[in-house]
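A.,

Following up on our hallway conversation. Structure tokens first:
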């Protein structure tokens, strides 16, 4: 990820939100991937700086186990990469709708990236890198649409409370041209609705969750994620 300062991120221009997410979905939709920690390792791998780690606590609150991504002070990365379905890595493709649902709680309300719709490529193999990227900055959840040429467009900024569980539902209409779109629902409210966007980079994308590119290097950062699911409609993941 290209390093940017906190101030420069918040100063990036916004683009207008749309009113609907146009997604073609099959008549009989279903959960495609259940990434809950109670099901064991369902990611391809974890990418963590030395000293960082992922653990699966059960706090006896009825949620069972959940993922805890821990980035120690002075480090910048601990995240998941790829999802596994039926023993094989799931093949994301363009022209399809993907919905992701999860609960999330963070230790602090000012750190960095917790989700990337990350490009499969490196260097000249991509020209967006992460068409959809979300961060916690200065007590707010922020969403960017990154257009071709890595042009950052700030589309959402809503309040975020640390040490509290929040429900997120993200829908991405993965398109290699500007017919793509994406929505984000937070705690049952629609907070992001963007269309006319390219949501599929040159060699494709995968989701990543965790802690990345933290802006507060003096503090430990933790992102807890519970009940991860993926389907083709919002109803699959609500």
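Then the amino acids I'd put at each of the 238 positions:
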């Amino acid at each position: 990820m290209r390093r940017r300062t906190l101030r420069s991120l918040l100063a990036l221009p916004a683009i207008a939100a749309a009113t609907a997410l146009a997604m073609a979905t099959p008549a009989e939709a279903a959960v495609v991937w259940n990434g809950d920690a109670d099901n064991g390792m369902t990611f391809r791998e974890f990418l963590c700086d030395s000293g960082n780690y992922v653990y699966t606590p059960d706090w006896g609150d009825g949620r069972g186990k959940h993922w805890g991504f821990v980035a120690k002070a002075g480090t910048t990365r601990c995240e998941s990469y790829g999802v596994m379905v039926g023993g094989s890595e799931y093949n994301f493709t363009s022209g399809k709708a993907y919905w992701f649902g999860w609960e999330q709680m963070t230790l602090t309300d000012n750190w960095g990236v917790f989700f990337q719709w990350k490009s499969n490529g490196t260097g000249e193999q991509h020209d967006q890198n992460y068409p959809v990227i979300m961060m916690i900055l200065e007590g707010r959840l922020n969403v960017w649409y990154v257009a071709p040429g890595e042009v950052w467009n700030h589309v959402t900024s809503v309040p975020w409370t640390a040490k509290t569980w929040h429900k997120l539902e993200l829908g991405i209409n993965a398109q290699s041209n500007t017919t793509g779109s994406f929505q984000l629902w937070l705690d049952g409210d629609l907070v992001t609705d963007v269309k006319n966007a390219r949501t599929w980079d040159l060699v494709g994308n995968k989701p990543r969750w965790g802690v990345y590119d933290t802006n507060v290097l003096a503090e430990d950062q933790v992102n807890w994620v519970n009940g991860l699911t993926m389907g083709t409609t919002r109803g699959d993941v609500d």
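The chain has one domain: 6-22+29-237. Curious whether your intuition agrees with the design.

B.
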